[in-house]
Design goal:
8 strands; AOC barrel-like
Length: 163
Amino acid sequence: MSYRRSWIAVSVVILGILVFIPVAQAERKDVELTQCSANTYNVVQSTPEIGISSLDQKGILMSTHENKIFDNWTFHAVGVQKRVGGKFIWNGFSKEMGPDGEFIIWEWSGDSESGTTGKAIYGTGKWKGVKGEGKSKTITDGKPIVPNTFQFCQKIVRWIELP
């Protein structure tokens, strides 16, 4: 019986120690941004019924959240889009780069009715192992100044989590 009591005592001590070991948790932050950019389109097909094109987008991010994450970041996005009648769908990838040169790659898709949804898929430096998701919606656009271009700003609401 003494062997069994010793085993129970050792188990209780080990469990007690484990309870006080801090567990590393990912740090999740909410982010709100305004993104303004200019797109250039490479048109594959354009008729009143259907339009197909690639897009090349470049711009800047401005934080509208008190934590100022992603303030003054720049980005480059590439993707494809399809228009059927007046409705658009699109998908692609973007690279968002901070002033320090570190960056996050996002994969995104969307349509002209619900906006764009994106997911972080890669990061460098302090963003290595990043997770995140977000939604964006156009808040303003302007008359294209050059054919096959589109200038606009979006509101982005996302969360980001570091390991």
